[in-house]
Amino acid sequence: MAEKSFAAALNEQIANEFGAQQQYIGAAVYYESETLPRLAAFFYRQAVEERNHAMMMVQYLLDASEEVRIPDIESKQTRFDDVLAPVRMSLDQEKRVTEEINALFKLARDNGEFQAEQFMQWFVKEQVEEVATMTDLLTVVERSADNALLVEEYLAREGLGEEGADPSAPPAAGGAL
What we know:
mainly alpha, Ferritin, 0% strand, elongated
C-alpha cells in the first residue's frame, strides 16, 4: 500500500487548521458571554491566526499545482464549565497540532519532498510559540481562577498574542487578513 502523499496529508491539515479556527471562535464567544473582553479578543486573534495557517497551506498547494480541498464546517463548543476549560482545551489542541505538523514534516522528509519539508519548517517553529503561549496563559488562568479579571489585567499588560506579523511566514492565499 502506497504511503499517503504530502498533498493529501496537507489537505487534511487544512481541515484541522480551519477546525482550530472555529474552536477558537467558540472559546472567544464563551469569554464574550462571560464579559471577559480581553480573553475574547485573544481567542478571536488566535482564530484569525489559524485561518491564516490554513490559507498558507492552501497557497502552497496552489503553487505546487496540487488539488485543494476545503472542508465542511462542524459545530464547535461555545459553553464551558469555567474560565479554565477553554484554555486547557486550547493547550491540548496546540499540542495535537504540533504532533500533526511534526508528522507532516516527517512525511515530507521521508518522501524526499524537499520543498514541502522547507515549507513545513516555519510551522514547526510556529508550534513552539503556540504551545508556549497557551502554557503561559493556562498558568496565569490557573493562578487567577478565583478572579478572572486578573487574567484580563495580565492580557492588557503583557499583550499576549498581539505580536505583529512574522515576515518569515509563508504567503497565505488571498493575503493574510
